[in-house]
Automatic annotation (TrEMBL):
SMART domains: ZP. PROSITE patterns: ZP_2 (PS51034). This is ZP domain-containing protein. Residues 1-221 form the ZP domain. The chain crosses the membrane at residues 256-280. It holds the Pfam family Zona_pellucida. Gene3D superfamilies: Zona pellucida, ZP-C domain, Zona pellucida, ZP-N domain. Keywords: Disulfide bond, Membrane, Signal, Transmembrane, Transmembrane helix.
Length: 297
């Protein structure tokens, strides 16, 4: 905080928890609040809080899409405990990775471009030898613009164990191991808020058929669906948030592309000019040759 003879100036650090700043977030707005206390009777034996100023700023959440201030920057990676039988509980996890090597995982809120791929892994936390022969099948995956997997607006990625469109790809056979890997091309949702990914997975016993055959029928990502857990061997896991930056691009930035287009235009113009020059020289030479022949006659 800074002050002069007339004003107090307050600057909010990027970590809003510093200096006592409180932050509240709901589905549509973010609220930042702090309290300024000025004591004017400090030199007296009895002091009182002479001035108390509570200030508050409320912004729509989409205002923060292209700013440095992150909304909900705490990374969420949930673990769901599933009771396989009366004596065995298994943990389900959802982890988001940066590429197909599955060696570097996201552990903090990040910004990703819509043309980038997001790599997912749903796995069992199996530290019990009695569960060595159980299998995992991912039933469905979807995205929401809040941490609530039951949000009213859901972008469906995987439905009934099958991809909803060609942007979803399996990197392992679903239902034949204790983990499933896949990737999806990123997308945005109507409100442009940070996205959370959720998956519903089921645990299969050793004598059960855990695989799933899929037809060619596909549905739109923007279809709305409610996910429920059927049976005691299923659980929902979540991870996020991911900010989809519509201005972000992979590869050559737009400014570089403009430069490249300019260079292409210059080169094309030069080639065209040289071509016209050559044709003009040939035409001139032909005319001079014709005139010379007429003189000789």
């Amino acid at each position: 905080m800074e002050e002069n003879e007339m004003f107090y100036y307050l600057r909010i650090p990027r970590k809003t928890s510093e200096c006592g700043t409180e932050r509240r977030v709901n589905g549509s707005h973010i609220e930042i609040q702090n309290t300024l206390t000025v004591t004017l009777s400090k030199e007296q034996t009895i002091s009182r809080r002479d001035l108390l100023v509570v200030w508050k700023c409320v912004y729509p959440r989409h205002y923060f899409r292209n700013t440095r201030l992150r909304v909900d920057n705490e990374w969420l990676s949930s673990v769901s405990l599933v009771e396989f039988n009366s004596s065995l509980q298994l943990g389900l996890t959802l982890t988001l990775f940066t590429d197909e090597s599955y060696t570097s995982k996201y552990i903090d809120a990040i910004t990703i471009a819509p043309e980038d791929n997001l790599f997912l892994q749903v796995a069992l936390q199996n530290e019990n030898s009695f569960a060595a022969d159980v299998l995992l099948r991912v039933e469905s995956c979807w995205a929401t613009e809040s941490a609530d997997p039951q949000d009213n607006i859901q972008g469906v990625i995987l439905q009934d164990g099958c991809a909803v469109d060609e942007t979803f790809h399996w990197l392992s056979v679903n239902g034949q191991a204790q983990k499933s890997r896949c990737y999806i091309q990123m997308f945005s949702m109507p409100r442009g808020l940070p996205l959370y990914i959720h998956c519903l997975a089921n645990i299969c016993g050793p004598l059960e058929d855990c695989t799933k055959s899929c037809s060619s029928e596909q549905r739109s990502k923007r279809s709305v669906s409610r996910k429920t857990i059927d049976g005691n061997r299923a659980g929902i896991v979540s991870a996020g948030p991911l900010m989809v930056n519509q201005r972000a691009t992979s590869g050559v930035p737009p400014s570089y592309w403009a430069v490249h287009m300019t260079m292409i235009a210059i080169v094309a113009g030069s080639i065209g000019f040289l071509g016209v020059t050559v044709l003009a020289m040939r035409a001139t030479k032909a005319v001079m040759t014709y005139v010379e022949r007429l003189r000789r006659q």
